[in-house]
Specification:
The complex is a heterodimer.
Chain A lengths: L16 H28 L1 H12 E6 L6 E2 L5 E13 L7 H12 L4 H10 L8 E4 L4 H9 L7 E11 L6 H4 L1 E4 L2 H6 L8 E5 H5 L1 H5 L3 E7 L5 E8 L6 E4 L3 H11 L4 E6 L6 E7 L13 H9 L8 H4 L8 H12 L7 E4 L2 E4 L2 E4 L7 E4 H7 L2 H11 L1 H10 L21 H8 L5 H8 L9 H13 L2 E3 L4 E5 L5 E4 L4 E4 L4 H16 L16 E7 L22 E8 L6 E7 L5 H19 L12 H12 L5 H12 L1
Parallel strand pairs in A: 2-10
Antiparallel strand pairs in A: 1-8, 2-3, 3-4, 3-5, 6-7, 8-9, 10-18, 11-12, 11-23, 13-16, 14-15, 17-20, 18-19, 21-22, 22-23
Helix pairs in contact in A: 10-21, 13-15, 13-16, 14-20, 15-18, 20-22
Chain B lengths: L4 H5 L3 H21 L10 H22 L5 H22 L1 E3 L2 E6 L4 E2 L1 H17 L14 H15 L4 H19 L2 H21 L2 H11 L8 H15 L10 H4 L11 H33 L4 H25 L17 H19 L5
Antiparallel strand pairs in B: 1-2, 2-3
Helix pairs in contact in B: 2-3, 2-12, 2-14, 3-14, 4-5, 4-6, 5-6, 5-7, 5-13, 5-14, 6-7, 7-13, 10-12, 12-13, 13-14
Classes of the chains: A alpha+beta, B mainly alpha.
Chain lengths: ~650, ~375
């Protein structure tokens, strides 16, 4: 019976009471735990979870910026961007997917689309997301797809920008190529994302920051399946800046044509500025094969090719300078006064030193010969003597001062410094002392000494301009995409070497003779209306066998020597300096000479010598200047003043 | 039964109002979870929920006016009918998303598992209405309840509906405990359950197993089984202290939350109304459950008391497991939030249960 007592709580079923109370306590505990958990999530972790919520629904779609273009010095485009077409397919838009895919493969003449769709499906990609089924269609395929649109529901074309090297392999070592950014790059560079393009080689790589620009993007709101709902924010992109090179496309083209199928290199500079007018290295490669991803087979072919097409021989090829080094001997000897313009040595065709015979290339010898003729006819014995009297260390010092055996600092990767040996160098390298006989080899540019074509061109420029080493540069100006200049690169003087003008005169006269005199070794490089000064050289490929010397143009090609030619023109106020090497070309004058001639001809056709059009120089003026140049003396005060003006 | 004045005096307005409030919250949440914009028509779910609420209120009132003691005699028949419905579902039920839970009756869909909860409570209370012997119920006396539990539980598991089976087990345990189970027996049962767990694992379907694994480590499969937990926590957490505001829940609106009108309705609500909102909701439930337990304490007879415990237990366990699920404390099982989640059968069942509670309270002083 219930006890109805106001205000007093009674439990009519007392047996259950304690358990009910226990239950209530349990309930309160559990719900309390829930409250604590909610507090944790909603108050303590609110910020973190809010971020995650945003990350769920906001996607950033990056739009990579247009890459800067590359032009030659006359603003002619060398590298631009072309559209590349991919075929994409949206599976949910095709009512009969299988049939559409078959038709597509049939029309394109390629299979692989079906596989790509399968892969996408396996990855769990939603049906409304487009799948790239075929990349880089050729024009025929593009037209076919567009024509058969009705047959191919769900299929469309996607246009991608692709880097395009307009002239293929022309200047490829300078221009370089682009590729996809690697995992290592991504770790190092914050603003790059997977799939971005990055310069890998050459100018594309050294000037990546300028060319790249800043990517823009869109902030898009998406739902849980990734469907785009609306645009939240748009960030404009900034296209990359364009590069105007110092290269003249016409000279480059002529140089590459002249080198032809042979392996070799040519570099042409402006002696007054250090600007590079042409830079060619053969064999070359077509940078366009890298666009959109190079196949591993192609890559392997390039890297394992014994001719090393990826090597930039201008800056990375080191060769013995051969007889071109005699110019260094001359400058060193005359400056140090161990040699004078009238010093004569006797060349009978060879000489004995240290119990060995050292031959001259001319078996019958040159007879009594002094420095001018020794340069013109490239007498080995003369320079053996010069070298011996100088000693290796003095010789090395002069070579270094003139820029040999050192990197020029050009903005390209992996420039080699070459070698100019000295006693100290040999000790450090081989722990052996220097044998005086080795100086003889070095004097004629063989043995340990090795230089790059760029160093040689730079040397030619220095002799031409009177001792100033300008930094070789190939970028003249940076423009923004609409053409306004952003930065200009003036010439930079790296160093100066003081050479007595009389010495320079003497050496220059000799170099004029090399090209213009009847018995000059570079007669093939002679020009009618401009006085060219130069020096040939032959770099030995195999060491001279005991007493026997392989005649330069004989023997199997791969054993033939490399042919060098360095030159500058016109001899007064030179405007172009060139060095060229033809591998296994044999004699420098006949292999490298004509190449240099071709380039110079093109140059002077476009840039006629001061105040005259080609052919206008009278023969009389020409001969007179030639005659004075070919004389053994220097030119006296007049030349002295001219030189002063030049070196400043 | 004549409506005594005193009865009406004890019409439990607390239960009535709280139940109505919760149903209102549910309506608002479903509205938000299906909101597609001011210009679009209301999702039919919302209208249907409104109709169910209306029907539920009517039935709640009817149940309140009905004398609960009569239920005693209907316990077994009701139980058998429910089993029948469960079998019908297993045979001819409508499948959605890999489970058969509904019987399609044309205009409406009936979900027998919701009714099963009430049926099991009723039949258990009927069995336990007598006082236990000294020292509490013995193990052998628990055999019948075990079978009474097992049959519907297995039928429900075959749907497969792990959640409801779990609820059935929990309310049985609650009732058995409260009604006087021997402590030692309880320990044995718990031990038995622990030992039976590996066997239970064997019978679980793969996706149910995955759910357990991903519960322990949601990140192990963030796009699959762990997805629900992660997304739910994100939504709840994103709500912060005061919530994002009605219709502003981005996680729900953008479909990041799965099952947002049913299993995860709490997450929708929590994102929009924040900690303040979730405490309010928790408070409402606590009020409802506590009132139910109070009614159990002050019920006139043992039958009524246990019945009140049972109904309160259904509400409590569902709330605890659902919110536990949404907050990542409990593995994901398909359990809806009583009175709030969308679902006609569930709403009706809960409303009827609330009506029974009112009925029990009303008749406190009757005899």
């Amino acid at each position: 019976m219930a006890k109805l007592t106001a205000g007093r709580k009674t439990c009519p079923v007392p047996k259950l009471e304690p358990r009910i109370v226990a239950l209530m306590l349990f309930i309160c505990t559990v719900l309390g735990a829930a409250a604590v958990r909610l507090y944790y999530l909603q108050i303590i972790k609110h910020h973190d979870l809010s971020d995650l919520a945003d990350r769920n629904r906001i996607r950033i779609q990056r739009m990579p910026a247009l890459r800067g273009l590359v032009y030659d010095v006359h603003h002619r485009p060398l590298v631009d961007t072309r559209p590349s077409f991919d075929a994409v397919m949206v599976p949910e838009d095709a009512p009969d997917l299988g049939r559409t895919v078959d038709r597509l493969e049939q029309l394109l003449g390629e299979d692989g689309a079906a596989k790509k769709l399968e892969d996408a499906q396996e990855q769990g990609r939603p049906e409304f997301e487009p799948v790239t089924v075929e990349e880089r269609l050729n024009w025929q395929q593009v037209v076919t797809l567009e024509t058969h649109q009705l047959d191919l529901p769900g299929v469309s074309l996607q246009v991608n920008p692709q880097r395009h090297y307009i002239y293929g392999p022309l200047g490829s070592h300078l221009l370089g190529y682009v590729g996809e950014v690697t995992v290592k790059d991504l770790a190092r560079l914050a603003s790059y994302r997977m799939g971005d393009e990055i310069g890998k080689f050459g100018l594309e790589r050294s000037w990546e920051d300028i060319l790249r620009g800043d990517s823009g993007g869109q902030e898009i709101e998406v739902d849980a399946v990734g469907r785009r709902l609306r645009l939240l924010r748009e960030i404009p992109e900034k296209p990359g800046d364009s590069i105007i090179m110092t290269i003249d496309f016409d000279l480059q083209r002529v140089a590459e044509e002249a080198i032809g199928d042979r392996a070799g290199a040519l570099v042409a500079l402006d002696p007054d500025t250090g600007y590079i007018l042409a830079l060619a290295s053969h064999p070359a490669f077509d940078p366009n094969v890298f666009a959109g991803g190079i196949s591993s087979a192609q890559w392997r072919a390039l890297t394992t090719d014994p001719a090393h097409p990826l090597q930039n021989r201008v800056t990375q090829g080191t060769y013995p300078p051969g007889s071109t080094f005699k110019i260094v001997d001359s400058i060193a000897g005359l400056s140090d006064r161990t040699l004078t313009p009238h010093t004569a040595y006797f060349c009978p065709g060879g000489m004995y030193f240290g119990g060995r015979e050292y031959r001259c290339w001319r078996k019958q010898g040159h007879g009594a010969i002094s420095v001018h003729r020794a340069i013109v006819e490239s007498c080995d014995v003369f320079f053996y003597n010069v070298g011996q009297h100088l000693g290796i260390d003095r010789l090395a010092a002069w070579a270094h001062a003139l820029g040999l055996g050192k990197k020029t600092g050009i903005e390209l990767d992996n420039e080699k410094s070459g070698v100019v040996p000295s006693a100290q160098w040999k000790w450090r390298r081989y722990r052996e002392r220097w044998y005086p006989a080795e100086t003889l080899s070095v004097a004629i540019g063989q043995g340990y000494v090795a230089i790059t074509p760029l160093q040689l061109a730079q040397l030619a420029a220095e002799i031409g301009n009177g001792g100033t080493f300008y930094q070789p540069q190939f970028v003249k100006e940076i423009d923004s995409i609409d053409g306004t200049p952003v930065k200009v690169f003036p010439p930079v003087i790296r160093s100066r070497v003081h050479i007595d003008p009389a010495v320079l005169d003497q050496v220059r006269a000799g170099m004029v003779g090399v090209v213009n005199a009847g018995d000059g070794t570079a007669h093939a490089a002679r020009l009618d209306d401009v006085i060219v000064a130069g020096k040939t050289g032959t770099a030995q490929v195999i060491k001279e066998a005991q007493g026997v010397r392989v005649k330069e143009n004989e023997g199997p090609e791969r054993y033939r020597d490399h042919g060098w030619f360095m030159a500058f023109a016109p001899v007064d106020h030179p405007r172009i300096a060139i060095a060229c090497i033809i591998e296994h070309g044999g004699h420098g004058g006949s292999s490298a000479g004509p190449v240099v001639k071709a380039v110079m001809q093109e140059f002077f056709m476009k840039n006629p010598p001061q105040g005259a059009t080609p052919g206008q120089l009278t023969k009389r003026t020409d001969n007179a200047r030639l005659a004075s140049a070919l004389s053994t003396g220097g030119r006296g005060t007049e030349a002295h003043e001219q030189l002063d003006a030049q070196t400043e | 039964m004549a409506l005594d004045r005193r009865m009406l005096l004890h019409f439990d307005w607390t239960i009535f109002m709280v139940a109505l409030a919760l149903a209102g919250v549910g309506l608002v949440s479903v509205l938000s979870a299906t909101w597609t914009g001011a210009r679009h028509p209301l999702d039919p779910l919302v209208l249907r929920q409104l109709i169910w609420i209306g029907a539920g209120v009517a039935l709640m009132t009817a149940a309140a006016l009905f004398d609960y003691r009569a239920l005693n005699s209907y316990a077994y028949p009701f139980y058998v009918v429910t089993l029948g419905l469960l079998i019908v579902v297993a045979v001819a039920g409508q499948s959605t998303g890999g489970s058969r839970r509904w019987i399609n009756l044309g205009l409406l869909k009936l979900e027998p598992s919701e009714i099963a909860k009430l049926a099991v409570v009723l039949v258990m209370v009927h069995y336990l209405r007598e006082e236990p012997p000294r020292g509490g119920w013995r193990a052998h006396q628990m055999l019948i309840p075990a079978i009474l539990l097992a049959v519907p539980a297995i039928l429900v598991l075959k749907q497969p509906d792990l959640g409801t089976a779990l609820i059935l087990i929990m309310i049985t345990v609650t009732l058995v405990f409260v009604s006087g189970l021997n402590w030692r027996t309880m320990a044995v049962v718990v031990l038995g359950a622990v030992l039976a767990a590996p066997m239970a694992w064997h019978y679980l379907k793969p996706y149910q197993r995955e759910r357990l694994v991903s519960f322990i480590n949601p990140q192990s499969d963030p796009l699959g089984a762990g997805y629900h937990i992660i997304q739910s926590e994100i939504a709840i957490g994103a709500g912060g202290a005061w919530g994002k505001g009605m219709f502003q829940g981005t996680q729900a609106r953008l479909n990041f939350l799965p099952e947002q009108t049913t299993d995860f309705i709490f997450s929708v609500y929590a994102e929009e109304f924040g900690f303040a909102g979730s405490m309010l909701l928790l408070g409402l439930y606590l009020a409802l459950i506590a009132r139910g337990v109070w009614i159990a304490r002050h019920a006139r007879d043992r039958f009524g008391s246990l019945l009140a415990v049972g109904v309160s237990g259904i509400i409590f366990w569902q709330v605890a497991i659902n919110i536990g699920m949404a907050t990542g404390m409990v593995p994901v099982v398909g359990i809806t939030l009583p009175l709030v989640s969308y679902g006609g059968s569930s709403l009706i069942a809960m409303m009827v249960g609330a009506g029974v509670l009112i009925s029990i309270n009303m008749r406190r002083y009757l005899f």
